[in-house]
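Question (not urgent): is this output format expected?
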Amino acid sequence: MIRAWSPIGDREMRVGLIGLGSMGRNHLRVLSGMTGLRLVALADPDVTALTSAVAGSGAQAFAEPMAMLAEADLDAVVIAAPTTSHLPLTLAAIERSIAVLVEKPLAATPAEADLIVAASSGPGAPPVQVGHIERFNPAVLELGRLLEAGWLSSVFAISSRRAGPFPARIRDVGVTVDLATHDVDILCAIAGERPVRVSAETARRIHASHEDLLFGLLSFPSGTVAMLDVDWLTPAKRRQLTVLGEQGMFELDYLTQRLTFAARQTRPTPG
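Got this back:
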């Protein structure tokens, strides 16, 4: 039974964190420095990581995340555990009326994601948000502002490149689910609509069980086309976005948060 969720008023928000891998440690650092909340519980099966994190935060330690959700007094939880565990953990938090920030991807499969969406849409369900961090990249926010202001009256094409070395920490999913979810989210936001056609080619070169390279093409109802280039094979990290439109072209570097605009100098003569 989902209980009614209500804001906590003026008191500190009591937050738990599940997962102390690379993203979990980022969340630990940020949560530990925020005002208005208190990190009260941490969960991870890695005893060494858990002991170290608890020593620095003063939070209660749990080896089992389900035990933390059941026993700790939480207002909210950040789920930074492996993707395959997102479904049971998120559903358990929703059942206990605990607000959730779940790392992307939301789930390992579309069917699992649908279950989370359905549970989070029920009456009295707590807030549930996916950690699409690139939405809050200052350069992405500025790009959105300029597009809203009409710098490009129409968007012809978008291309996105997200590449880098193979991350040994990712074992349960491939590059499509782990990385390309960022770019699909941003591409749809820029286009302002969902694609009507999607096609892709994938390959597995060095990953033991999942694809580590993706080339994708998205076609939108307005005629905008978008291209995805995502891999775990490139020696140096690259995070780039190009938006081509009627008045010119935006180029964005996610890593440096640099956004540039090149105006179209001449217009083609009709006919």
